[in-house]
Amino acid sequence: MVHKLFDIIPSLSSNQLYIIGVDGLSRSGKTTFVNQLEKELIKRGVDFCTFHMDNHIVKKNERYQTGFEDWYEYYQLQWEVEWLRDHLFEKVRCSSHLTLPYYDNESDDREYRKVDLPNEGVILIEGVFLQRKEWQPYFNHLIFLDCPRNRRFAREDPSAQINMEKFKERYWKAEDYYLRNVKPRKSANYIVNT
Question: Residue span of the signal peptide, if any (predicted)?
Fold first, then answer.
């Protein structure tokens, strides 16, 4: 599948950064797909840098029990959407490095790290809700991994599956909002059924 994908992406010209977004709902296979893309880029000798949006979420007290509905917390408060637009998406093409907050789940804290960027090649950005209006314009190419909810849910850790109410009220309502209002299948350049 990755080989076919490279056939539809225009040839990379020198002195250009090509921004590829890998979008998809929870457990749709985004990380696995990006790993395959990275192997293909290495094989082709293309310089790249990868960002996983889940590395840049906020602390729990900023996204849980905020007074908003659960689904809204997940969709709007999980990330500093505008800050990431200004400090990641706006700057990734014109900077030699970025300084971004990385979240640590064990400590529930964030640490700022410097990330060096290639002068040319590919920036891979992987995450859920990538095609939200604040981020969508910055991609050269958007891939949406499409996978039925029942199959995605079966991939969840069994201990997580016990909390069905959280999935219904937090994750699935946010996903439904995204599918209904953003329509990622329509705006993606390429859909991969996983």
Answer: none
